[in-house]
Every structure is written in structure tokens, then in C-alpha cells.
Amino acid sequence: MLESVQPFASPPPSGGGDGELVGLLAASSRGDEKAFARLYDLTSARVYGLVRRVVRDPAQSEEVAQEVYLEVWRQSARFDPARGSAAGWILTVAHRRAVDRVRSAESAQERDRRYAAVGEGPAYDVVEETVTARLDSVRVRRALETLTDVQREALTLAYFGGYTHREVSDLLGVPLGTVKTRMRDGLIRLRDTLGVES
Amino acid sequence: MTPDVHALSGAYALDALTPDEAAEFEQHLASCEACRAEVASMREASGALADVVAEPAPEQLRASVLAGISAVRPLPPESADEPAKDELAQRRARRAPRWLAAAAAILAVLAAGATVRAVQLDRQLQSVVAAGDDVTRVLTAPDATTATARATTGGRAAVVSSAALGEAVLVTDGLPPAPAGSTYQVWYLNGSGAPTSAGFVPSGDRSAVVLRGDLATATGVGVTVEPAGGSTAPTTTPILAVQV
What we know:
- The complex is a heterodimer.
- Chain A is an all-alpha fold.
- Chain A is 70% helix and 2% strand.
- Chain B is 40% helix and 20% strand.
- Chain B has a 4-stranded antiparallel sheet, covered by helices on one side. Chain B has a 4-stranded antiparallel sheet with strand order 5-4-7-8, with no helix packed on it.
- Strand 1 of chain A pairs antiparallel with strand 1 (145-150) of chain B.
């Protein structure tokens, strides 16, 4: 067995204004509400869009997005720039909150309906339908296109659909082990194509 | 712990594990720096997916968010809401120099697949601590890379090398004691020429030693069993070999 690992995480390239977000988080941790307002303006479209994609219901999405920002505010001192970008951290909080909401609030019946709705078409249509002329999204969409169908479907069902890996396995009719592998190698490919690192 | 626990990194980064599975994986993460780095990089990638679905937030959301935060105070750094843990973390931070985290990461790589609790890890580190500052310098080098291998005798080893320093450290874990009258000798391997001696593996269940010789021309590191005192060239089949 011979494996090479990179045990020391290096800071990510702070492109796309992440350096500003890092500074705003630091200021927020000292109670600077103006800095937090600026942070909100820089991130709210991504945070709200992601939450809404997962949660779907607009009123609930608003509630969740508010919880997300409250958590980001409260936890701002705990953000560690050595471990990843500020945007990545905020979106991790947002995604987790959104997923928690759909998993806890949802009755079995609703969940079945959600299964059915997603099952009607290929999962990546979920992405395609919302793609606008946004420059960032063009880059990400291109990266998504480099994935295999199963990788892309596993990723989008989990990330945008909020499904667990077992549910994704059921939805795609693919063994659980395969789903785990596709999620992992799909993310690695996406990461390498986008040139993001942590 | 399932043997393929590393494979869960993707599902974990996508929040696609159940709470029980996530808790189990987090236990693994605590001892696996490689997985922590992988999950962190995957989260950057999944976060980029949010670009695709970005949409303007409702206008009233901004006002409610800002009203909401003005009613609460940001938490201080560390876990002030978990006093016991906080105190422990502070004690650790006081006595743990920067390189300790690096050494912990190396040992975690060596222990990959097994659950290593923090307390056990601390104890394991004592032998590495004893290895001193030269080891530290290499383990904490910004460009340090790690390659690991299993020994045919049982046990594992990792070579941590820094091209910038031109130095490498061999870390071992669980090698059986060398047979009586013999010693583990370390060799720098290079593609064409003869292996050159790079020193000896210190005795002990776990060890760390800075290798002698020229890292720049080396393609690998090997360990052989040699008569006590060492040989000028390997006389037995390597019990382990690591590419550098």
C-alpha cells in the first residue's frame, strides 16, 4: 500500500472577493453590525437561492435563511480561514440548515411527493432550468458537464434535493456503495475542474 | 468502524449522511487530517454549486436578519458555551506547540482505518515529542508532503519530506523490535545508483527520525534489517519502501 496525502491544509486562493468576506466575518465577531450588513449583501443571493432550492417553500426558505445568518453572526469568531474560504463556510452553514429543515419538517407523505417530483426528469434538469446568464454559474455549469451522469445526478440530488445517500441510491436505482463513490469522485472532479482547494 | 469510512467523505461534504452516520464520520475526522482536508476542499466545490441557483433574496429578509442579529451577541472564540471542553482546549493550546498538530496528523495517517481518540493520540505523541526539534522543523514545513506504507513485518511508516528544507523524516508506528543482534537501517533509494544509508530507525513502538543524505536525488526510502551497527549496502529485502 502506497499512498500520498497532503496532510497540511493550505489556505484557499481568496479569489472572488473572499478576502473581503474574511475581514467582514472578523469584524462581525467583534459586534460590527455594519460589516455584517455588507456580508449579507455579498452573500444573500447565494444563501437564499441555495436554501430556496432545497427547502422550496418561499416562506420557510426565508425563515431558514434568517436562521443561517443568525448562526453565521453568532459563530463568526469560530470561522478559521486556514480551513477554507469564508463563502464556503457560510454556504456550508446554509446547506446544513436547509437540509435539517426538509428532513425534520417533512412528513413521510410529503417526502414521497418530493421523490416523485424529482423522479420525473433527470436530476440535472433541476440545475439546468435555473441557469441564467450569470458568469459564475456558467463556469460551474461547465464543470458539472464534465461529470458522468451518475456523478452529476448523485451530487445534485444530494446537494439541491437534500436527499441522503440512501435516498439517492433508491432514487437512482444504484447500489449504495456506488452512490458513495460517485459522490466522492464527482466532488473531487468538480473541485479539480473549478480549481478550488482547501 | 467500517473499513471504507474514508469513502464517506463525499456524502458527508454534501450533508447526505444520517445524523448517526455523520456522528460516526466526525469521530473519524477528528483523527484523520487527510479526510479533514478532503472534506474542506469538497465543501469549496459544493459551495460553488450555489452560484448556479443564486437568486435575489426577498427585500424584507435583509431587515429581519439585521434586526435579529442586533438582539444577540456573537460568541467569543472557542467554546465558551461548553466550559469543560473549553478549559481542556485551552490547556491543550497552552502546552501544544504548533508542530504537535502536525505530528498528530502524521500519526493519524498511520492509524488510518482505526479510531484513535484524542487522549490516546496525546500519549502516542510523547515518543515523537522526544524526537526533538529537527523532526519538528520538517513536520511543520509549509511544503511538507507525506507518503505512507505498510511494513511486511507489520506496522506502518510515513515519510514526511520537505523539498524546501531538503530533509525528510521517517515516522514509524507498530514496527516489531528488530531481531536480536540486528537493527532497522534506512536507505535513500534512487532510480539508477546504489541505495545510500540514511540512518537507523530508533527503537520503540513509535519513532521519528530525520534522515541523513540527499533528499533531492532520492526517489524513495526503504528500510532493511541489517546486522547491528549497520551495513554499507542493503543485505536483505526491504521490509518497507516508500516513494518520495
